[in-house]
């Protein structure tokens, strides 16, 4: 932002000097316009960064902020960027250092999944590396989105999206009765894993007025028998390919369980539900609430 201010001052100063030293003939005006355009295009180029994102959620945020043209590289799991033919420089956890450095990035965005050794190696090439921890709640999702907005000079856009998301969340909270349904949110199989309190995905449950049945679970791994014993009113399963469908069918075999008898077992898109971004969070929450709306009065 400071660079932009300096450039704007340079433009204004140049225009003033030209108008002061030259008459107002057509040639003079044309020269002024040409100079202003040249400096302006230089300003745009100076403010553009070459960015590499090493996490799908961070890549999504780059797109939501509208600076995808600055994205030089991504992982093989960054669906939007791969579809845009961005250079793939990493898998989920393994980074091709040589290819990454060859793209001459100014900024690399990573999560804690990227090893400290890899981060340190990238920094040795004088590349700015920004590390983002997994958010524990929506407030941290917003803080990280705002941070990315500042890194790419899109603070206003970030603030706008955050404000809209907060407003939608509050509207949903007003519509949904608080804490009257026990919810099991499954995010893995073999072993079965559940969403834990103290995670951003737990906010899905609380914001839609539910109670997480995993409040006494520490590691996330649970047995099927323990879930059946807690008899949840609602079960959400994130997509896990064929496994997700199999889990859906498996839960339906327990006819005495409340979620089964009331047909409250749902599959949720993992690409959205598990991505800590403001946009995917509210889209997932909207979907979950919509699935419950027909019987939300119960």
Structure overview:
The chain is of the alpha/beta class and 298 residues long. The protein folds into 3 domains: 2-47; 51-133, Nitrogenase molybdenum iron protein domain (Rossmann fold); 177-295, Rossmann fold (3-Layer(aba) Sandwich), CATH 3.40.50. It has helices at residues 2-21, 26-47, 56-64, 79-83, 97-102, 116-123, 138-151, 155-175, 202-207, 224-230, 242-252, 258-261, 270-273, 278-292; strands spanning 51-53, 71-75, 87-90, 107-111, 128-132, 181-188, 192-194, 210-212, 221-222, 234-238, 265-268. Strands 6, 7, 8, 9, 10 and 11 form a 6-stranded mixed sheet that branches. The protein has a 5-stranded parallel sheet with strand order 3-2-1-4-5, sandwiched between helices. Strand 6 and strand 7 (192-194) form a beta hairpin. It is globular and about 60 Å long. Residues 1-19 and 27-46 have low confidence and may be disordered.
How would you sum up the major sheet? 6 strands, mixed
Give the radius of gyration. 25 Å
Structural class by sheet pairing and helices: alpha/beta
User: What fraction of the residues are assigned to beta strands by DSSP?
Assistant: 15-25%
CATH top level of the largest domain?
Alpha Beta
Q: Label the CATH architecture of the largest domain.
A: 3-Layer(aba) Sandwich
Shape from CA axes?
globular
Oligomer: single chain
Can you tell me the CATH superfamily of the largest domain? Answer: Nitrogenase molybdenum iron protein domain
Tally the beta strands. 11
> How many distinct domains?
3
Mean pLDDT, nearest integer?
86
Number of alpha- plus pi-helical segments: 14
Q: What is the CATH topology assignment of the largest domain? A: Rossmann fold
For the termini, the CA-CA separation is 53 Å
Low-confidence residue ranges:
1-19, 27-46
The portion of residues assigned to helices is 40-55%
The helix/strand series, from N terminus to C terminus, equals HHEHEHEHEHEHHEEHEEHEHHEHH
